[in-house]
Amino acid sequence: MNPDFIIVGAGSAGCAMADRLSADGQHQVLVIEFGGTDAGPLIQMPGALSYPMGMKRYDWGYQSEPEPHLGGRRLATPRGKVIGGSSSINGMVYVRGHAKDFDHWQESGATGWSYADVLPYFKRMENWEPRGHGGDPDWRGADGPLHVTRGTRENPLVTAFVEAGKQAGYQTTDDYNGEQQEGFGPMEQTTYKGQRWSAANAYLKPALKRPNCEMIRAFARRVVIEEGRAVGVEIERGGKVEVIRAAREVILAASSINSPKILMLSGIGPAAHLAEHGIEVVADRAGVGQNLQDHLELYLQMAATQPVSLFKYWNLLGKAYVGARWLFTRTGPGASNQFESAAFIRSAAGVDYPDIQYHFLPIAVRYDGQVAAEGHGFQAHTGPMRSPSRGRVQLASADPAAAPSILFNYMSQEKDWADFRTCIRLTREIFGQEAFAPYAGHEIQPGADVQTDEELNAFIAEHVESAYHPCGTAKMGAVDDPMAVVDPECRVIGVEGLRVADSSIFPRIPNGNLNGPSIMVGEKASDHILGRTPLPRSNAEPWMHPDWQGSQR
Ligand SMILES: Cc1cc2nc3c(=O)[nH]c(=O)nc-3n(C[C@H](O)[C@H](O)[C@H](O)COP(=O)(O)OP(=O)(O)OC[C@H]3O[C@@H](n4cnc5c(N)ncnc54)[C@H](O)[C@@H]3O)c2cc1C
C-alpha cells in the first residue's frame, strides 16, 4: 500500500480514525500497531476486566517514577498493547465528561472544542441502549459504531447505592451522559451483547474489511521529517528497521505516554531535554510531555452482613460457572463490568459542577483483582476529578525501545489531600444511610479508627491508586501558546503533515473516564484531517445545580 495517511496506534482514537478516514474509499489508510490480537475471553468477557491489565502480552507495563509525595511509591501505569489499545484492557465504564470540561478546553485555546462543538461528535459515535433505566434519547446517539449499554442492575447493593445518595440529599440522574451529570444513577458501559465493545470491535475491524484500510504489526520508532514536513514513519518489524512513507499525513495516536515519546524521538519537544539525549531538534516545543494529568482513586470497602455480593463467585467453582455461562450464552455476571451504579457530586458549595466521581462495585476487591477482601462486601471507588497536580513524560534514553520516564507528581498540592479527605468523609456518610442498613457491616478500609486528618492522610498516601487516566502530554491550544503542542485541528505546531489525535491532546482532564473522550477526539480529528466542515454545533443546555453557590448537594 502507498498510504495517504499513516495512523500510529490502533487504540481508542486511532481505531476511530481508521474507520472515519477510510469510510468514503477515497484515501489509503495504514495503521501501525505494535500489539497483537484481542481474541479470547480475557479481553472479550467484560467480567474478566482485571486480567489483561498487567499481562505482558496486552500491556506496555509502565510504572511511574518513585512519586515524591507518596513516600516514593511507584504506581502502575498500564497502557493497552493490543488492537483496540487501552479500550481493550480498560474497565469499559463509559462517561463523556461534563459540559463544562469541554467549555474549559475551548477557553484555554482549543477553539472549536466547546461542549456545543463536541456534543454532536459524542452523538455520532454512540449507539445507545438504555435498557429500560431511563435517560433522554434526544441527548444520545443511536446510529454510531460504539455500543453503550447498562448492566442488569439486579444486585440489591447496586440500587442501594443510588437510594443512599438520595437519602443523603443528593440529586439523582437517570443519565449522567445526558442533560445532567450531577447526581446518583446507573453507570454505563461499552459492552454489546455481553461482550467488551472496544474501539477495535466498534471501528477497526469493520474498517479493515475495506480495501483501502490496512494494518501492520510493527513498532513505530520515530516520525521521519524532511525539511520540516513529516513524510513517513520509521518502524521496526521482524528485527528490521524500515521507513514507510505517507503521501499526505502522519497521525500519532499512540497514547498519552507513547505519543509524546515518539514526538521527542522525532526531534519535537523541549530543546534542552532533546539535547541531553543527543537528539537533533526539529521543533522546539516546550509542552511535549508536560501537563501530565491523571485521576487517583481510593476504594472505601464495607463488609456485607448478608451474602448478596459477588463474593459468591470469588472461588474456583464460581469463576468456572461465570466463565462457562458467558462462553455459552454471553449472559450472567461475566457479561457486565459490574460497575452498574455511579455518582458525580460536588465537594462543596461554591463548586459549580461535580468534582468527585464514584464507581460502585458490589464486591470488596482491588481493581487489579489481586486482593479480594475478607468475605461478602462492597466498595465505592472515589476520587477528585480536577487535581491541580501536574507531571511529565520524558525520555529515559534515545533508544526507542526504552520505556519513557513518567512522573505524575501525584498529591503535590495541599488541595489534593483536602479533597481526598472530603471524599472519604462524604462516602462514609453515604454508606451510613438507611438504604445500606440491611447490608452494611464494619468498614474494612480505611477502618473506623482512621478519623483525624493525619490518620486519613496516612491512609491516602499508602492506598491511592491511579484510575489509569493519564492525559494532556501534547496539549491542544492556540498556536501562540508556548506550551501548546497541537493546534485546534490537531496539527503539530511547527511541523507540516503531522498530527496528534488521542488522549495526549486534552488540555485538561475531563470529569470521568477517558475512553469516550479519546474516541471523540478521533472522530472529530478525522473531520479536520479530511478538511470537512465540523458537525453543526448543538444548542442543548446542560443542567446545572440551581443553588451550586449555596449548597453542596
Ligand atoms: C487498566 C485501564 C482501565 C481503564 N478503565 C477505563 C474505563 O473503565 N473507562 C474509560 O473510559 N477509560 C478507562 N481507561 C482509560 C482509557 O481506556 C484510555 O484513556 C483511552 O483508551 C486512551 O486512548 P488513546 O487513544 O489515547 O490511547 P490507547 O487506547 O492507549 O492507544 C494507543 C495505541 O498505540 C499503540 N502504540 C503505542 N506506541 C506504539 C508504537 N511505538 N508503535 C506501534 N504502536 C504503538 C498501543 O499499543 C495502543 O494500541 C482505562 C485505562 C486502563 C489502562
Automatic annotation (TrEMBL):
Entry EC number(s): 1.1.99.1
A Gene Ontology BP annotation from the UniProt entry: glycine betaine biosynthetic process from choline
Catalytic activity: choline + A = betaine aldehyde + AH2
Domain Glucose-methanol-choline oxidoreductase N-terminal: 80-103, 255-269
MF-aspect GO terms: choline dehydrogenase activity; flavin adenine dinucleotide binding
Cofactor(s) needed by this chain: FAD
Recorded metabolic or biological pathway in which this protein acts: Amine and polyamine biosynthesis; betaine biosynthesis via choline pathway; betaine aldehyde from choline (cytochrome c reductase route): step 1/1
Domain of life according to the entry: Bacteria
Protein name per its UniProtKB record: Choline dehydrogenase
Lineage, uppermost ranks: Bacteria, Pseudomonadati, Pseudomonadota, Alphaproteobacteria, Rhodobacterales
